[in-house]
Specification:
By secondary structure, the protein is mostly helical. It has one domain (6-372). The chain has 16 helices and no strands. It has helices at 6-36, 42-56, 62-71, 79-98, 105-121, 128-160, 166-206, 218-234, 237-246, 252-272, 278-292, 300-328, 332-353, 371-380, 387-394, 399-403. Pfam families: PHO4. It is found in: Membrane. Belongs to the inorganic phosphate transporter (PiT) (TC 2.A.20) family. It is a multi-pass membrane protein.
Length: 410
């Protein structure tokens, strides 16, 4: 570990801070549907997810290598560039967490890195082919594939279980949902924890601490795994509420289908080294599962806000990363100013979040309006059985009937 300078130490600590925010930002990916359907208690769910995130961090380094070796040119990248990239990613994570939107931590990191790199070394330092094939294409394909798979799986489960006893099937699907949630947590560790490993490895190469083209050292893998596990255990309750209740109302069958579909997509992508967004994959699967049940709907008002956040993630983080890199280029005082700005902004966002606390005690309480599409579909749908009887019992007799003179009155 030669040439481990102060700025390099700051970059490593900041990267682990990003990993921590990634953990609580993306807890919803694994546990939102499990918590919303009541399959697991909230605190138990996030604890299980944290442990499996840590385990998943040790299963692969393909995604880490994509970031540290493929996305940008290692030569000419200073540790300050990595620091600036992390500032953009952390602030975007915190802002979207504050408003409860499940945006992509992965794309925030990519955007910050691209913006800071372009500001430092020019557009030529970004490998466009890697960006397109291993970041942008998976960003579009992952939610579509996971959503279609979840919709088909949901419809299949309802078809196969239509004659089964409802109580028995619900119990079985809850058990399956816990298993699939664990699989998503494991997959999350194999993909998202590696992004921090890759960024730290890139910083170590830029700072001369390790040789170019090196794999992540063991201490980097361990620290990244621990950081994301701790963040996961805290639970991103605001985003869990949106993912579990804000997008659609899921039954255990749908939750199982959504999580299994998402986990399959994430694990396959991790094996191929695709730095996809686990948030995109799980959100797509949840929406697909919501449409897979007869009469099920998606709250498109929430989904639209989420899509807008997805589209803004890369450019917003890139702009902040580029601005932070410009300030750090002025020297030590510039880097110090950016660090102070990051700490102050993070503290301000946390204080704003205290105005309306969301935690494990109220995570399943939501007042999300159904939206125009859902309201229209509900208006044309026939009322459930028994509603007519209830209505007739509450409707009073016509006024003219009660106004007829009685026989005694005549």
């Amino acid at each position: 570990m030669e040439n481990f300078s102060l700025i390099l130490a700051i970059v490593v600590v900041t990267a682990l801070a990003f990993d921590f925010t990634n953990g609580f930002h993306d807890t919803a990916n694994a546990m939102a549907t499990t918590i919303s359907t009541g399959a697991m208690k909230p605190k138990v769910a996030v604890a299980m997810s944290a442990v499996l995130n840590l385990v998943g961090a040790f299963l692969s380094i393909e995604v880490a290598n994509t970031i540290s070796k493929g996305l940008v040119d290692e030569t000419g990248i200073r540790p300050e560039v990595i620091f600036a990239a992390l500032v953009g990613a952390i602030l975007w994570n915190l802002l979207t967490w504050l408003v409860g939107l499940p945006s992509s931590s992965s794309h925030a990191l990519m955007g910050g890195l691209i913006g800071a790199t372009v500001a430092s070394a020019g557009i030529g330092a970004v490998h466009g082919d890697v960006l397109v094939t291993k970041v942008l294409i998976p960003a579009v394909a992952a939610p579509l594939v996971a959503g279609i798979a979840a919709m088909i799986a949901s419809r299949l489960t309802y078809t196969l279980g239509k004659n089964a006893h409802e109580k028995a099937t619900s119990k079985g699907y809850r058990a399956g949902q816990i298993t699939s949630a664990g699989l998503v947590s494991l997959a999350h560790g194999t993909n998202d924890a590696q992004k921090t490993m890759g960024i730290i490895t890139l910083a170590l190469v830029a700072g001369g601490a390790i040789a170019p083209d090196s794999d992540p050292p063991v201490w980097v893998i361990l620290s990244a795994g621990v950081a994301i596990a701790l963040g996961t255990y805290l639970g991103g309750w605001r985003i869990i509420r949106t993912m579990g209740k804000g997008l659609t109302d899921l039954q255990p069958q749908q939750g199982f289908a959504a999580q299994t579909s998402a986990a399959t997509v994430i694990l396959a992508s991790s094996h191929l080294g695709f730095s996809l967004s686990t948030t995109h994959s799980v959100s797509g699967a949840v929406m697909g599962a919501g449409l897979g049940r007869k009469g099920g709907v998606v709250r498109w008002s929430t989904a639209t806000r989420m899509f807008v956040a997805w589209g803004l993630t890369l450019p917003a983080a890139a702009l902040v990363g580029a601005g932070a890199e410009w300030v750090t280029s002025f020297g030590t005082w510039g880097t110090t100013l950016v660090a102070v700005f990051l700490v102050a902004s993070s503290a301000a966002i946390w204080l704003m979040s205290r105005r309306e606390v969301v935690d494990h005690t109220n995570v399943n309480d939501t007042e999300e309006p159904p939206g125009v599409v859902t309201t229209a579909m509900a208006a044309v749908a026939p009322p459930p059985a028994g509603v007519h009887d209830d209505l007739s019992a509450t409707i009073s007799a016509p006024a003219e009937a009660s106004a007829k003179p009685s026989a005694t009155a005549l």
